[in-house]
Amino acid sequence: MEGGSNFSAMAPLFFDGDNYQMWVVRMETYLEALDLWEAVKEDYEIQSLPENRMVAQIKSQKEKKMTRSKAKACLFVVVSPMVFTKIMSLKSAKAIWDYLKAEYEGDERIRGMQALNLIREFELQRMKESESVKEYSDRLLSIANKVRLLGSVLNDSRIVEKLLVTVPESFEATITTLENTKDLSKISLAELLNALQAQEQRRVMRQDGVVEGALLVKHEGGWRRPDAKCNKCN
Predict the structure, then answer these.
(1) How far is it, in rounded angstroms, from Cα 116 to Cα 92?
(2) Mean pLDDT, the chain cut into blocks of 10 residues (234 residues total)
(3) Cα–Cα distances in Å, from 79 out to 1, 12, 72, 195?
(4) What DSSP character marks residue 225?
(5) Beta pairing partners, 218
(6) How many angstroms separate the CA atoms of 98 and 59, rounded?
(7) Mapping DSSP to helix (H, G, I), strand (E, B) and coil, where does residue 123 land?
(8) Are residues 219 and 230 in contact, defined by beta-carbon separation less than 8 angstroms?
(9) What is the pLDDT of residues 168-223, one digit of tens each?
(10) Global confidence as pTM
(11) What is the Cβ-side half-sphere exposure of residue 106, based on CA atoms within 13 angstroms?
(12) Please, what is the end-to-end C-alpha distance for the chain in angstroms?
């Protein structure tokens, strides 16, 4: 548990009633890292000690009680006051976990509807002229990951297709080059993003060069920056 005690300093995702699917994945991993997941997954009974109890048995029982208490306390401190009022009377970490699942996960029909709404949102996305490739791809990936957490499928290939048809015309040269050199039905998301970001970076560098060139002024037969020192003026 020495490593776990260090890890406990890292705060888990706070749960306020929204994004349950994301929270539960991260929280389960967090509890496993603290060696508390078994106490949440199974509400094991702690057996009474026999009369001729041994030191090892006393120690084991104490550790099990402590683990159950820590697991319950951990769940209490990672929820909002509103959620806490719903679980504060529950006696075990497993009871709390099961309640949160029943209350916030939703049944299969509801999750399916949520996934469909997210997929519609995904289909409506378009890259704005003012945003970068990373900002746009992050927006698409955020929606895709929410769909996946609901148990539906939204593959990277779908994101690739979306990027190819919704990035601005300024990226047309890069897409044309990719079409001529690769099978776009097999290109990876990382490869496409690298190509688009490379063009984006080149365009920024060219724009910076134009701005720097505009700052040059002609002075006595040569070009210099306005802030450059002129030896002949001294």
Answers:
(1) 35
(2) 48 83 90 90 64 60 83 93 95 94 86 92 93 95 92 92 93 91 91 93 75 50 50 52
(3) 24, 10, 12, 42
(4) -
(5) 223
(6) 29
(7) helix
(8) yes
(9) 998 999 999 998 998 888 899 999 999 999 999 988 887 765 545 544 554 444 54
(10) 0.63
(11) 16
(12) 73
- H-only helix segments in the chain: 2-7, 20-33, 37-41, 55-77, 81-87, 93-104, 108-124, 133-149, 156-166, 172-181, 189-214
Look up residue 69 and give its two tokens. Answer: 């208490």
Tokens 């698409």 correspond to 140
Burial class (CB in 10 A: 0-12, 13-18, 19+), 27: buried
Across the strands, what pairs with 222? 219
Residue that is written with structure tokens 């009633």 in the block = 17
CB-CB contact of 140 with 122 (8 Å) = yes
